[in-house]
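Look over this record as teaching material.
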Amino acid sequence: MRGLPWAVVLVVALAGPAGAQTAVSGTVVTGTVQDQTGAVLPGAIVDLATSAGAIAQTVDADAGGAFRFDNVRAGQYELRARFEGFKSASTRVRVGARSPGAQRLVLSLANIQQEITVSNAVEVSTNASSNVDAVTLDTRMLESLPMFDQDYIATISRFLDSGSLGSGGVTVVVNGMEVNGLNVSASAVQQIRINQDPYSAEYSRPGRGRIEILTKPGSQEYHGDGNLIFRDATFNARNAFASTKPPEQRHILEGFFGGPLGRSGKTSFMLSAHDRTENQQALVYALGLDGIIHDTLPQSNREALVTGSITHQVSDRNTFSIRPNYQYESQENRGAGGVTLASAATTFKHHEQQITYTQQTILRPTLVNQFQVLVGHEREPTTSASPARAIVVAGAFTGGGGQADLVRTETHMNLNESVGWTRARHFVQAGFQLPDWSRRGFYDRSNFGGTFAFASLDAYALGRPYAFTQQQGNGDLALLEKQVGAYIKDDWQVQPGVSLSFGLRYDWQNYFHDTNNFAPRLSVAYAPGNKKTNVFRAGVGVFNDRSGPVAIADVLHSRPGGLTRYVIENPGYPDPFASAAVAASQPPSIVQLAPDVQIPQTLQYSVGVDHQLQKTTTLSVAYTGARGYRTFRSRDVNAPLPPLYLARPDLAYGAVRQIESTGRQETDSLQMTLRGRVTRWFNGQMQYTWSRAYNDTNGIASFPANDYDLAAEWARADFDRAHRFLLLGRVSPPGAFADLGVGISWNSGAPYTETLGADVYKNGRGRARLAGVPRNSLEGDGYAQIDLRVSRDLKFGSGKQARTMTLGLDAFNLLNHVNYGSYVGTLGSPLFGTPVTARAPRQLQFSARVKV
């Protein structure tokens, strides 16, 4: 961790606040919240009420379902626990000079009439997991919002911060375990959260870079959902790049069903499934020798998922569950659209089987253990629509064949072992994790036919490519990827109105030889006068990145006996090997890790205030800064030398792609979040963010324009957006006939790069820019979209025979605003500075849901 002052953070974290008062008057009240099966309920809201009914304190149950109230004066109290989708539970407790002992609150599943209809209200608190700038959506809110294809992750991902994501993208945590995807149907989701406890040592990435999902547990009452979603182009507007409205259709059938298994009352089951079928059209807008190319081609997509679980309560202290699932996905003509022609499309398929075992054990009322292990297998074949050689013409089109033939397999295991201990004013949690321990197979035939690159349409007309790349050899590879994580954290209620959360995390990944990847974390919350009106928060932490398997596979593929890649400059066309001398003299290109490569780290820090505007409404204002150190990039260390760029230094090799950790990144943002019941008729959350993001690399596969001038790469990051506004919520006017859900997304334009298209530096990549022109110097148009959902509940029957049918109509991009996608930045192209894709126009989605 050279260059990063992590030791300073660790010292501060372990030392605690100077002069903190440790003497607290009153008694501590602790306990756990569980469902009927014995499974703990993280995030359950627990109230401590006086004998007169006044709420003295409110806390959220932690990851182990445990809660703690400090500084409780002697007297009679009532503990009340509630969790969305469950009936509330309460118990009376008498507090004296000694602690009354750990309490246990058991919540049973709510029936349809008892479902909580408004559960987004929040109160400010000094708990580390109660930061108001977190985004939380429960079942009822999720069902009320406009959700395209019921894709909850895509909808809530709008609230993520791209600068907080790792090399592998967003981190998805389901029921406490980091996984690759959701792998349950939408109806089985209980709650989704972003940015809760952002500096928790339990997770590898910051709060704004991860999505936490809780699924519905089993119960001792039969219940279920069935949902049908339908879309057809007949009801949609026309895309800005379509000359006519092509036929498109999509339907989704999904649901879940669960209840008791057997008569013991200790075993329950849950089944969920979905089937998605989509027939849409890809729109091509490119430039050919005969002018503009307008084309459409069908894209048929299919996805099916089946998952189940069995939960058994062995005793009051021990519960386990087994959850198997199977997923299938296929996509036809993948990648086509914009300047990519139909011939360059691919067909993609994905098969996945998994089984997850979870065991929760209450060792003592103050000591909870959770063990999770997941074992799975995946297979992903990708085949090109055409075997022809690929043709890339800068600023015009990408055609020929797709040259993307690859079969990827994976047999993996994830493991999560954690222990939570409550002691007086402390909740200590420690854990060991295997985020990924897998055998991966890469059967790579990509670019076996080769790719021609042309600087312009004129060069293509003359048959003068500037480069031809091709790989040959043995593309079969198996590798073992190992990732290990361990952490310890302590949430400490220092005194009334002051809490401190500090921890230390360690991450390790094979193929990298740095073993000092310690990541200290610290956050503090202070409520002046112990009043629940304002809470000031500050935090700082170090977060480790990961390389992902693809870059490692590239390195191993290029070893002797593997794949050999060739780069031919100014080749013949259409036969680059027309000359025997050319064919015999081409040196191989290789991929290697830099000798000093290290795992990148990010130092994130923030300060803000949470304010209780009214009982059910909060406002948060927070500044967050982050500095990325030693970020990944690729560089050709054998590129032709300046100033003439004529010959490579080592003639025994062509391009030598070296994966380095020499990049850096800076992000700053100011965020305002309004959350809760804002008015009598609006309940939800809205967020405005001003931000700036600069870096000198776009990731592990990103090359600089000039391999010998890295300073010129420092510029706006690809994800930089100066302004962003998001809103998700429910509108419930008095006497309204239907329920209204609304989503608003607006952000300023994204940057893109102006390039020459020519291979000025003779590195075969053609990404050169004019002298003095930085990366991402151009900016496209902004993005604006309003989505609306109108739904109506129809109730039938009563009691246990009650049924509810919900009819819904969703309108996405309601105002049919044209939101352009990618732009052409190649100078000299007739399309320079113009968009070549547009996001979806107005689309209508019809749905019907039945609850039993």
